[in-house]
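Batch manifest, entry 17 of 40.
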Amino acid sequence: MAPSSFANANIDEILENLTTDEAILLTAGVGFWHTHKVERLGVPAIKVSDGPNGIRGNHFFMSTPAKCLPSATALGATWDTKLVEEVGFKLLAPEAKLKATSVVLAPTCNIQRNPLGGRSFESFSEDPILSGLIASAYVRGTQNGGIGVAIKH
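Output type: structure tokens
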């Protein structure tokens, strides 16, 4: 099955036919940015990329330049779910497609509890309702643009 046709695959059937070893492989990656493929069942490798502050690409250092978003905290401070949804749809999804990324590893949904946390800038807010509303807008916009998301820490 070609990767482009996998969207129409019978997922229940594929899951039923996975061996234990194949299922275990799907819980880990190949390097940092790809999942394992299961050729026997036509399951393609999927490319992922970090995405809380733009779409990173394939490398940690010396990577392809990316559009850089304001921090998640700045996006959360707008209280504007329509704006964040538009960011997902008009900026993140097209950028992911340019980098052949199928799934963005974002948004970060931690609740900021302390300003000394080294990665607080990746979180939307200390308010759980605001964080949820902004995160769902981010997800909705990005997915409406044809790119999957994986909410993380």
